[in-house]
Amino acid sequence: MIVLTIASSLFCMVLAKSGKATFYTEYTPSACYGNKGESTMIAAANPSLYDNGKACGKRYKIRCRGGTNHGDKPCRKGYVTVKIIDLCPDCTDDQLDLSQQAFQKIANPDAGVVRINYVK
């Protein structure tokens, strides 16, 4: 059982993509669901990932890997799973814009921008 868990974790890390995360606070209206409210564990995808709406409703597991500046302890332990509900038109191809609540699960909001690994 332990071997299976370790193998599963390694498999996920191998498939994970690297990028960066920021956060936002205005969740509606969203590109995917209009004015319908969703949970707070949500994210806006960069244009490439969003892919004309194909990413809507997809879930991603995200882990903080470090800060982008020299701040002290930007990351928190663990993962957060978010649902894509919006488009972040100004995000770079390696960026996800998380809800503030989702960002706080994995990082100190004072960090502003953090390096992440994420997997669907």
Report what the structure shows.
Its main location: secreted. InterPro entries: EGC1/2 (IPR044206), Expansin/allergen_DPBB_dom (IPR007112), RlpA-like_DPBB (IPR009009), RlpA-like_sf (IPR036908). This protein has helices spanning 2-15, 47-50, 100-106; strands at residues 17-24, 42-45, 59-67, 79-87, 95-99, 114-119. The protein has a six-stranded mixed beta barrel. By secondary structure, it is an alpha/beta fold. It has one domain (17-119): Beta Barrel (Barwin-like endoglucanases).
Q: Features of this protein?
A:
about 120 residues; about 35% strand; Barwin-like endoglucanases; six-stranded mixed beta barrel; alpha/beta; EGC1/2; 6 strands; disordered N terminus
Task: Indicate the topology.
Blueprint: H1 2-15, E1 17-24, E2 42-45, H2 47-50, E3 59-67, E4 79-87, E5 95-99, H3 100-106, E6 114-119
Parallel strand pairs: 1-5, 2-4
Antiparallel strand pairs: 1-6, 2-5, 3-4, 3-6
Signal peptide: 1-16
Protein name: Expansin-like EG45 domain-containing protein
Keywords: Secreted, Signal
Largest sheet: 6 strands, mixed, barrel
- Structural class assignment: alpha/beta
Low-confidence stretches: 2-11
Q: What percent of the residues sit in helical stretches (DSSP H or I)?
A: 10-25%
Mean pLDDT: 89
Number of domains: 1
What Rg do the Cα atoms give?
Answer: 14 Å
Give the class-level CATH name. Mainly Beta
Q: Kindly state the number of beta strands.
A: 6
Strand order of the largest sheet: 1-5-2-4-3-6
Give a quick summary of the entry.
The chain contains three helices and six strands; from the N terminus they run H-E-E-H-E-E-E-H-E. The protein is α/β, with parallel strands linked by helices. The longest helix has 14 residues, at 2-15.
